[in-house]
Structure formats: structure tokens, C-alpha cells
């Protein structure tokens, strides 16, 4: 990927399901990485680590069962310790009947995320501290 005044399309992963991405220096190496939520079939959060030469290496950060219905994620420093934490929102699973989740009744809330939308999230149920 060279600066030629044009854009070059780079596919990070083949297949459907990417619903949200955040661009940030995930591994703190000074390069911007892509962190994406995949919510169709193979539900997960994947970090695409920037190698600095226009290529990226995929690293699965969290994996979820498809029945969870992942709908949103955000990366914030929730506990103010300087590390990135992941907030994962789920529940969009109209394809399945009601299923008990490990986060039912545990710190489940509704919050206004950066988009300004009211989103039901299960805070800290799948929170992850990135070091």
C-alpha cells in the first residue's frame, strides 16, 4: 500500500457479518489497528493488527455463541487503569427462542453509547482488559 493519491481496497477478512469497527492502536505499537465485531454465524471480536506495510494479521479477541445475538461493542477504559476494556452488547437473537444468558440479571443496563442510541448492554459480563 503506497501513497499514490489513490485508495487501494484491502480485504481484511472474507465473509459476512461485520457490524461495527473501531480504529485504534490496539497493541500499542504506534500503528492504527482495526477491531471489528462479527455478528453473523461466527460471532466474535477480532483485532486486525497493522503490520505497517499495508497488511494486517487477524487475532480473535473474544468468541461468542451465535445464539447470543451480538449487536454492539465499544472499547473504553471502564476502570480507569489505563488499559482498554471491551463492552459487549448482545440480545439480537430473534432467530432463537428465549435462552438463559450468563449475564441475565447481572449488571444488565441500558446506556447511551457514543452514537447517542439507547442500547441494551450487559456491562462487564464479557468485559476484557487489554494489556
Return the string of H and E elements. EEEEEEEEE
Q: Strand tally, please?
A: 9
Enumerate the strands of the largest sheet in spatial order, edge to edge or round the barrel: 1-2-3-4
Describe the main β-sheet briefly: 4 strands, antiparallel
The rough form would be described as: globular
Q: What integer is the average pLDDT?
A: 76
Strand content: 35-45%
Question: How would you characterize this protein structure?
Answer:
This protein has one domain. The strands form three sheets. It has a four-stranded antiparallel β-sheet with strand order 1-2-3-4, with no helix packed on it. It has a three-stranded antiparallel β-sheet with strand order 5-6-9, with no helix packed on it. Strands 7-8 form a two-stranded antiparallel ribbon. Helices cover 0% and strands 41% of the residues. It has no helices and nine strands. The radius of gyration is 16 Å and the shape is globular. The protein has strands at 18-24, 33-38, 44-50, 56-63, 70-76, 84-90, 108-112, 118-122, 129-130. The chain starts with 17 loop residues before the first strand and ends with a strand. With 131 residues, the chain is mainly β.
